[in-house]
Amino acid sequence: MRVLPPIIAALALVGLVVIPYRHHQNAEQEMREPHPRVTSVEASIPRINYIEQVKDIRRDLEKKSHIQTLHHNPRDRSHYVEHEVVVRFSPRPEQKKIDELVASLDAKIKRDFEQFLIIKSKSLTTKQLMKKLAEHPDSVFAEPNYLLLPNRKPNDTYYTEYQWNLPLIGMEQSWDVSEGSSDVIVAVVDTGVDLKHPEFAGKLVEGYNVLTDNNKPEDDNGHGTHVSGVIAAKTNNADGIAGMSWNSKLMPIKAIGADGSGSAVDIAQGIYWATDHGADVINLSVGNYTSSAALKEACRYAFEKNVILVAASGNDATNQPSYPAAYDEVLAVAAVDHRKERADFSNFGDYVDVAAPGVDIPSTYIYSDYASLSGTSMACPHVAALASLVRSVHPDMKNRDVMELIRQSATDLGAPGHDQLYGYGMINVNQTLRQAKPAKPARAETKQTTVGGLLNKFFMRLRFGFE
């Protein structure tokens, strides 16, 4: 395994800094009592403080003059790009009319996604652009260009020692039911994937880079590679880690850059592309506290195409709804630790559907490496992988039925029934798959076609009469 630079090695030894949930003071969380093996100084897999890195991304964004901040309350905030607007027309005007409109706004078309446009003005603010475009008779919506941030017994080398998360949710019994199907594709709309990582050899289908408009979704951040490994890293190959689905395919979609931030429009375009190219499940380990019309339309489009959408609830220990997780078409995932207790950082609220392991999760990382990360981003792919396993044993099950099965088969945690911290509870993969597996059809009586069988049938008819 590659030796990480000193700064990463140092991060591996630093405890995560999180915002505690103030109404749950007595809960001893994973951040205060780390997993003993994964966080040991002798561990082979480095522990990276990704939650603090995301906070750094936010701070860096807020220093940039062209980035505006929306404050939802004293602590939670969203960001958008000033002088830019996302607009959708229906019907779409002729290109000549669009060009004339853009010129009148002292603007240019920054990106054209067919479904919507990103328009950037030299002189008008985002609010001024929204007002003018809202007056257009064919405008369906005009909104800011919002930024989203990541919410981050096989024989594989690291499985027994480090992957506590998989036995916790019943994976070892579940692999007896299904190891996944190569016909099922899970799209990961994120920072891309390490295309040369040995854990993904033979596991990838064609992907897409939204940022550069090509089919090279190479990960230059690490987040997407980590998420992808949880879902479907090569398993039982006597090396590295084990993915939850041994046979499912991964579709990497790069919609987030090296700095860890991406726009709602880029995420939306990734959802459209994945849906149109055969994805059965889409993992969205990203979030923002302001709903985007473009993102919501993309989620609705995928849902209506029978795709299962899974998203992270967020890492700010707040009940502020995060999108896309809070959309009705999406399964929202909170995070728990190795003691099945809510992680300090995990967002909560009525929109949370289920919880999954999200603290000190070992998985793949860029440069053909491995790392341990924490976040609802890491909890989310556990649920996406479960959805892919359900589709493997019951390919005809509708997406809404898969989502409901995952909710109802979860292990109840916290207050009885659905609650704000855990939703319906922690996913129980074994229980879900056994409930999902179609009942075997009754064995049909075989017709006797031998000579003895025909003679027996003849004499029976002689006895009882021919019909």
Round the mean pLDDT to the nearest integer and report it: 84
Instruction: Tell me the Rg in angstroms.
Output: 25 Å
Distinct helical segment count? 14
Structural class: alpha/beta
Structural domain tally: 2
Assign the CATH architecture of the largest domain.
Answer: 3-Layer(aba) Sandwich
Share in helix:
25-40%
Q: Output the helix-strand order.
A: HHEEHEEHEHHHEEHEEHEEHEEEEEHHHH
Please give a structural write-up:
It is built from 14 helices and 16 strands. The protein has two domains: 6-53 and 149-436, Rossmann fold (3-Layer(aba) Sandwich), CATH 3.40.50; 73-147, Alpha-Beta Plaits (2-Layer Sandwich). The strands form three sheets. Strands 1, 2, 3, 4, 5, 9 and 11 form a seven-stranded antiparallel sheet that branches. The protein has helices at 6-12, 50-62, 95-104, 126-134, 159-162, 165-168, 171-174, 223-232, 264-276, 293-304, 376-393, 399-408, 429-436, 451-464, and strands spanning 67-71, 77-89, 107-112, 117-121, 139-150, 185-190, 208-209, 249-254, 262-263, 281-284, 286-287, 308-312, 330-336, 354-357, 361-365, 369-373. 54% of the residues are buried. It holds the Pfam family Peptidase_S8. One of its GO terms (cellular component) is extracellular region. The active site is at 190 (charge relay system), 223 (charge relay system), 377 (charge relay system). Residues 182-425 form the Peptidase S8/S53 domain.
